[in-house]
Amino acid sequence: MKKQNVRTLSLILCIFSYLLVGAAVFVALESDTESARKRMLEQKRAELRRKYRFTDGDYLELERVLRQAEPHRAGTQWRFAGSFYFAITVITTIGYGHAAPGTDAGKLFCMLYAGLGIPLTLVMFQSLGERMNTGVRFLLSRMKSALGLQRTEISTQNMVLVGVLSCLGTLCVGAAAFSHFESWTFFHAYYYCFITLTTIGFGDFVALQKKEDLQENQPYVLFSFIYILLGLTVIGAFLNLVVLRFLTLNTEDEKRDAAERASQRASLRASSQRRAPAFRRDSQTHSRTNLLSPQPTPHLRWFCSRIHLEHTSACRNTCAGCSVSSVSCRIHADTNNTAFSSPRSTLSAGLSFTTRRKSL
Amino acid sequence: MKKQNVRTLSLILCIFSYLLVGAAVFVALESDTESARKRMLEQKRAELRRKYRFTDGDYLELERVLRQAEPHRAGTQWRFAGSFYFAITVITTIGYGHAAPGTDAGKLFCMLYAGLGIPLTLVMFQSLGERMNTGVRFLLSRMKSALGLQRTEISTQNMVLVGVLSCLGTLCVGAAAFSHFESWTFFHAYYYCFITLTTIGFGDFVALQKKEDLQENQPYVLFSFIYILLGLTVIGAFLNLVVLRFLTLNTEDEKRDAAERASQRASLRASSQRRAPAFRRDSQTHSRTNLLSPQPTPHLRWFCSRIHLEHTSACRNTCAGCSVSSVSCRIHADTNNTAFSSPRSTLSAGLSFTTRRKSL
Question: How far apart are CA B91 and CA B74, in angstroms?
Fold first, then answer.
């Protein structure tokens, strides 16, 4: 079975098992508390109903009114600051839901706004994250020189360690700040920052919801917006470093397979043409073919074997939807084989060009 | 200024402007309705308070009880089906918040669960999305053959069109189903599907929250889970096709720049060695150098100019954190220049290898 299919099926099985395990653990952790809390709330509700003798209609009405008043409890949501906050939660896909469009026009605009904004934001965070990684790599290299270390190259492991520490540091800074401003415990504030910066955004904890904070506490509003955007950049930088290469594995494998098939077809065609009468060879034009045909000199063959390069597992060619179909790029980095050994007979089957053929 | 920095700064400005525009539009669409609704709810609340003469304490207690009872209104959340549903909303980052961990242990496990689950899920959806794109490309190609068309290649534009139609189709199927099962309008159901499949997940509309659906309506529960996961795959496939290549632009440019700098250093070193006494040249080993030095033959020079390949804008090399530093891969696809013109004098400066040097 193709490698891409094996990889995909394994991932699906993996995720399915992960969901089953997660569900089982959440049941174990939450279900007793849920039952206890439900019983207690029922009891309190029953006491209040008995005390005030609500009619059924009035009780349902009261329930509805208090439920709908919930967003308003936190102040005005749809002035500029609140709308800007909401727009951030849309394009970053955090989506707390502390405020959501009430009108159908608002819902429609929200969908159009997200449709363009989300891909744009994804690209922006990856772009900024990559710049951040480059800057960190540069600084670490300078630090290593300043410390007088011989080897100043920064390995992937160094970068991953710095990435993990940055993410944890960002969460801790946010936790300290929000626990102070929102009067949450440190743990709850840390949980809020984690849920926000992973863009899950449950909405069980939402900053800027203490009465009129959005309107009256501008420094805190500014801090919250900057924290969310910077924090997402740090997470984006970490994802750029660690996860991004895995997102393109299948695409690269598919392109490599396509290149191999194209080269094999070209080689077969070239071999069949070699068996054709000699006078035809020089007159052929615009044939996609292996560059070594018809008859490479030994020197040329040796040289071409030196450039039998292939993308290594860490260097990938993402050609998703590549519109340049006439170059297949399969280059094997002969980084270990450093000896000039005797000429090998053929160029990598993966290297082919659209050229006019002419004897070398 | 470097291309990567220009690109990143432009994206930041772009997003910031996008947020400002979005905020302004949301204010215009929502703020009047918010004020009107707030006034109406205040009025109703005041009427009920006057009718039942709540004490302040009792009223606050009633408000708190009804707010906390909200998740329970929708039935039991933390049995297996509900926990599985919750686990899906965590690792896909939808995060409705209709249910959220109440215990600190649940919150802690949620963070650990998301920390591993989210990257795994990202990779899985991209992987599956790529397989889907490949399958669709194959089917379309077969359809073109079956229709007797001469050109059976599927262009990027074909795939993007199919992608857009698939996304819209998925949303419409979901909208039809959920409007039926949840008694929502088609528009609200479509909005729910959109907010879910973009992983925003406000939680203003959440499926499976009609009384005890999670426990009693297993076919509908199964449909909802499958719809969410398949729908995310379709969106993932579209992102894989359209957006993924842009996520790696900065990384590729950075690698290309690093390769150029390395080649330039190698060329400079090679030129300075050429000026050194002749007997030293053949004894040098393991020097990173341009393969054409010291003295390429005209045929070799011409050949090397043919392989002056460069990754085109559609074919990118993602080498984020690449640990193979000894090969720089700058190949310019000479796809337009198909003539075998006279030999050019030098190999692309971008092609260098770690080799033992020996006269050609």
Answer: 22
Chain A contacts of B86, Cβ < 8 Å? 23, 26
Residues of chain B neighbouring A340 (CB-CB closer than 8 A): 355-356, 358
When scoring A107, A193, A256 by the number of chain B Cβ atoms within 10 A, the one with the most, hence best to mutate, is A107
Q: Are strands B287-290 and A287-290 parallel, antiparallel or unpaired?
A: unpaired
Residue with token string 């660690």? A242
Contact B45, A70 (CB under 8 A): no
CB proximity list for A64: less than 8 A, separation 6 or greater: none
Structure tokens at B248: 């790696």
CA A162 – CA B183 distance, rounded (Å): 50
What's the one-letter identity of residue A222?
A: L
If residue B218 lies in a helix (H) or strand (E), which one and from where to where? helix B218-242
- Per residue in A85-134, pLDDT tens? 999 999 999 999 999 999 999 999 999 999 999 999 999 998 898 899 99
Residues in A touching B12 (Cβ below 8 Å): 124, 128
Indicate which of B19, B84, B214 best probes the interface with A, i.e. most A CBs within 10 Å of its own CB.
B19
Give strand pairing partners of A290: A352
For the whole model, what pTM was predicted? Answer: 0.74
Q: Is the peptide bond before A294 cis (omega within 30 degrees of 0)?
A: yes
Cβ–Cβ below 8 Å for B248 and A250: no
Q: How far apart are CA B29 and CA B316, in angstroms?
A: 42
> Do A241 and B320 touch, CB atoms closer than 8 A?
yes
Measured between beta carbons, the chain B residues lying within 8 angstroms of A94 are 200
Peptide bond into B294 cis (omega under 30): yes
Q: 3-class SS at A132?
A: helix
What b/e readout covers B184-215, taking b as 16+ CB neighbours within 10 angstroms? beeebbbbbbbbbbbbbbbbbbbbbbeeebbe
∠ CA A161-A165-A168 to the nearest 5 degrees? 140
Residue B144: count other Cβ atoms within 10 Å of its Cβ: 16
Contact B86 A26 (CB under 8 A): yes
Contact: B26, A89; criterion CB under 8 Å:
no
Contact B244 A250 (CB under 8 A): no
Neighbours of B35 (CB within 10 A): 13
Q: What is the ipTM of this complex?
A: 0.74
Quick one: closest CA in B to A103, which residue?
Answer: B30
List chain B pLDDT tens, one digit each, 360 residues. Answer: 888 889 889 998 999 999 999 999 999 999 898 888 888 888 888 888 888 888 888 888 888 888 777 777 777 888 899 999 999 999 999 999 999 999 999 999 999 999 999 999 999 998 898 899 999 999 999 999 999 888 888 888 889 999 999 999 999 999 999 999 999 999 999 999 999 999 999 999 999 988 788 888 899 999 999 999 999 999 989 988 888 878 778 778 888 888 888 899 899 988 888 876 554 444 444 333 333 334 444 444 444 344 333 333 343 444 334 333 333 333 333 333 333 333 333 333 333 333 343 333
Length of chain A in residues, anyone? Answer: 360
